[in-house]
Predict the 3D structure of the following.
Amino acid sequence: MYPLTAGIVIETKELWDALQSSLQDLPVRIVLEQSEVGELSSLLERIERIRPDVIFLDISTLRVPLDQVIRGIRALPGSPAVLAVNRTAEPATILNAMRAGAAEFLFPPMNDLRAALERIGNERKTANQAFRRGGHTVGFISAKGGCGATTIACHTAVELPQRVKGKILLADLDFDAGMVGFLLKSKATYSIADAVRNTQRLDENYWKALVTNGFVPGLEIVTAPGPGARQPLKPEQLRFVLSFLRTQYDWIILDLGRSLNASSVAALDEVDDLFLVTTLEVPALHQAKLIIQKLLDSGYGANRLHLVLNRAPKRFDVTLEELERMLGAPVYATLPDDYQALNESYTEGKLLSPGSTLGKHFSRLAMKIVGAPESKKKFSLFG
Ligand SMILES: Nc1ncnc2c1ncn2[C@@H]1O[C@H](COP(=O)(O)OP(=O)(O)O)[C@@H](O)[C@H]1O
Ligand SMILES: [Mg+2]
């Protein structure tokens, strides 16, 4: 079943309990919970900010007209589906809810829940993928420079050849300070900028001249232009190149550089899963929050946005839940700090060994991203 994010607006305890227990085994992440509608405009504002795919709405205790609530929710960007939840199932109530615009009607013991969410999930999946064909594109973006986006992009990319079938590309879209070529010892003469500037010539053969095979078999690399060759690129041409790459590769890993800029924003349309890399430093968290807000406001699907907490100390004062609430996005993975190990490997001209502690975290992250089974249950905040 396609994973969904959900908001719960339920006052009746019996309904709340029934829903919670039915949701337990389903791939649904609760991102908003409140017991009653309250002030409709503030509820709508919250939903707009958090952008759940679905809203469970208790219609047995509404103090505002049902059609007004549902119409308000449906009109928000992303049009969350409303699932009307009621204690009983009289035909007149069901009809009323459906006429008001509810996608589904549920009542205890919520037997229809899974089927309802599957229907909605399929619709969302089709909508999300309508413009996508071919390879899966994954992007790493740094909340602010120095959080580790490039480090994580490179170390996860080199893990992929042994984990997935097909062709894999690591592309450096950091047009300010591209480092992928250096870290992976690419001797490329050309860069992705050549493809972006020559979209009219872009075909399989032209592309082959731009990529190199770094030292990792099965991973092709395209670098960012060097400092002397950095000129503004047209965002629509960049998007064109990325959509072309989907037809050539099964997996595409992008280093999107730091923060949002014209090229990362252009690339985002073509990114299926975006990993925002931050540390726990206050300025990084501040930037991360701004980026998340901006992305959600501009309609980027919350289910495509993932936080990676890098260089996490062994212990820290906030809980993951607090952090997620503060930033408005779920933490996908936590990686420990190991400056010395990284630095030693770089000094030897290598990437970090997969056997090291941080290396194991990179492997696990790669596996999680490509959907391969994890060897351990979950990422731990402290390990
Ligand atoms: N988990 C980590 N532990 C220790 N140092 C790290 C870690 N991740 C990244 N670094 C170091 O932080 C610095 C910035 O990393 P980089 O990947 O270039 O950041 P960004 O691409 O976000 O600007 C580099 O020196 C890198 O080696
Ligand atoms: Mg970088």
Residues 4-129 form a domain with the Rossmann fold fold (CATH 3.40.50.2300). Residues 121 and 148 are 33 Å apart (CA to CA). The pocket of adenosine-5'-diphosphate (ligand 1) is lined by residues 142, 145-151, 179, 258, 277, 310-311, 335, 337-339, 342, 358 (CB under 6 Å). DSSP finds 15 helices and 13 strands in the chain.
